[in-house]
Amino acid sequence: MRLLVFASRNRKELLRDPVTLAFGIGFPLVVLFLLSAIQANIPVSLFEVESLIPGIAVFGLSFLSLFSGMLIAKDRTSSFLMRLFASPLTASDFILGYTMPLLPMAMAQCIICFIAAFFLGLAVNVNVLLALVVLIPAAALFIGIGLLGGSVLSDKQVGGIFGALLTNLSAWLSGTWFDLNLVGPGFRSVAYVLPFARAVDATRAALAGNYASIFPHLWWVIGYAVVILAVAIIIFSTRMNSDHT
Amino acid sequence: MNAIETHALSKKYKERTAVQSLDLSIRQGEVFGLLGVNGAGKTTTIRMLACLTKPTSGDATILGKNILTEPQAVKAIINLSPQETAVAPNLSVTENLELIAGIYGNSRQSAKDKVTRIVKSLGLAEVQQDKAKILSGGWQRRLSIAMALISEPKILFLDEPTLGLDVLARRELWGIIEKLKGEMTIILTTHYLEEAQALSDEIGIMAKGQLKALGTAPELISLTGAQNFEDAFVALATEGEVAI
């Protein structure tokens, strides 16, 4: 009950912030339509909707880190979290309460992106559902990054350098905007050590029905998600029991 | 049973001692004013009693429940209004109150009933559908206190409740605190000496982490031979320990 009440509050806080809707839904859709327009005039295979939409979905998910990080950091810096730390809420209530509302939001965000992609020619088939499932670990990863950022940074830091760095890095290193091979093998290697290009490739494989190619990439994303979430939970719990929230 | 008992309660941050061997007994139902200049140890004391900061040594009980061994039991019977206004900005006044009622274990219906009562008693009706972020400082502070009251705590910590409020808003909050006298034990920290004098049944003055004096306002004035409470405070906050 306590957990659900707290999760409901967090959902309302996120959904009532116009920035959430503008950046979480609006911005990825603008990019999708813009790159599709470029592709229509100057055909680039990378910007064909089947290749593009997985990258857009992952790019959109990166904003979840910004939103969740901002919410937690604002709660910390405004003393709201101090009030809640003095209440009977437990550490698990806090962590689940902050993360639970984000997963349905992530799925809704991805579904809206895919519906937009249908209008741009994406085939409607069962592989779209599989792609949505494949995106769940990526959503968990970005939620974990947000929890981590919100636990250690101020709301200004999350909204400034953390958000900008994460959304840009995840975009550049995802292989969505440009072919990673064009920059060079070193850049490509770095990109594939990180989870962003892996998440995009796993989703592309799911969408293409190339099932055997999903898991090599998805394991990386799942691994990163588990580690980041674990670190975020440890740091949040430590800060909850420390002298300074 | 006393509402609060502390035994040699101490807190050190590296080399700095924030609270030093605090022994304090606060009776049930009284308003206890905890005064001191900045850095005297008031907020650290409240943080320890609210189970937000672990003491370096010593311990304390809240209505017989130990802050170190029974923090969840303590948290269920206390509530606090922090120094900074702490409200959920995108939630309405009603939603903020229902949130806290729910967190303290009230069912949806019970939460609604309590919200109705507290909105009426704290005069929040005219803003109850407004989002907290658009409220003025005075309304936000009133909401923050209402959020601390809605769980019907046995012990209420009010950390600088009228900080930054204009005279009228401050007087209104004084009226609210006056009404609560006897219903619950209130620990009030404030820099406004007239506020402590007007509201507190007993006053403790802290300086450099130590409790320097304890008594009613007239007792403290008499003890120091001062002309008024402000002079008594200055004398006690800068002198050695005096207990009544």
Identify the notable features of this structure and list them briefly.
heterodimer, A: 245 residues, mainly alpha, 11 helices, 79% helix, 0% strand, globular, B: 244 residues, alpha/beta, seven-stranded mixed β-sheet, four-stranded antiparallel β-sheet, 9 helices
Task: Explain what you see.
Chain A has one domain (2-244). Helices cover 79% and strands 0% of the residues of chain A. Chain A contains eleven helices and no strands. In chain A, helix 3 crosses helix 10. The longest helix of chain A is centred in the N-terminal third of the chain and has 29 residues, at 49-77. Chain A is globular, with a radius of gyration of 18 Å. Chain B has a seven-stranded mixed sheet, sandwiched between helices. A four-stranded antiparallel sheet of chain B has the order 2-1-4-5, with helices on one face. Chain B has 244 residues and is of the alpha/beta class. Chain B has nine helices and eleven strands. In chain B, a hairpin with a 2-residue loop joins strand 1 (4-13) and strand 2 (16-26). Chain B has helices spanning 42-49, 71-77, 93-103, 108-121, 137-149, 167-180, 193-199, 217-224, 229-238; strands at residues 4-13, 16-26, 31-36, 57-62, 65-66, 78-81, 155-159, 185-189, 202-207, 210-215, 242-243. The interface between A and B is medium-sized, with 25 and 37 residues.
